[in-house]
Amino acid sequence: MQNKDKKTVVLLLSIMITIPLYILLHELGHTIVILSAGGEITEFSIVTAHVSSTGGSYTDLSDLWLHANGALLPVIVSYTYMLLYKIRTQNMFYTAFSYVFSLVPISSLCAWVFIPFLYISGNAPEGDDVTLFLYNFSHSFSPLAVSVIAVMIIAAGVIIMIKKKIIGSFITMMREQ
User: Fold this and answer.
1) Which residues, including other chains, have CB under 8 Å from residue 63's CB and lie 6 or more apart?
2) Do the beta carbons of residue 34 and residue 56 sit within 8 Å?
């Protein structure tokens, strides 16, 4: 197998592992809040990216966490992984997986940047975690505060990726013949 083909396979494998892992972490984020509110999980699926529950005693704060924790848990796990990244590990899969696993949660936060603008204009997607979060959040704060915080979290992730040389290692690996 040529090196270019090997890199393509490794990158695709990294994506195929990262996407279900991200969905698992996202749904676990919701599950943690549901269980802490006394709810009972009735359905949990990575395939359909869905968790359902019954019962539970939710406050405005736990309802906010329910919708935010789906994004936050993967970000926390990914940022922790990035901080533990070892640049000296010269392994094609490790380099590709580290890049993809770092990038996917950061990319998912883009919805938290743009949906508040849609929310303000009355065009936010119904049933979306960001929209549901904003229903309660916007009673006390500007929806644009969510956009600002999301940009700050994204910037922190990109800075970590640069400082830990995750981006640089990936680019170097992809350029190598």
Assistant:
1) 136
2) yes
Name the maximum alpha-carbon separation found in the chain.
Answer: 58
How far is 101 from 115, CA to CA, in rounded Å?
23
Contact 153, 78 (CB under 8 A): no
pTM of the model: 0.93
The residue ranges of the chain whose pLDDT is under 70 are 1
- Span between the terminal Cα atoms of the chain, in Å: 13
Residue 50 DSSP SS3: strand
Query: Looking at residue 150, what is its pLDDT?
Result: 98
Contacts of 57 (CB under 8 A, 6+ apart): 37, 38
pLDDT of residue 87: 87
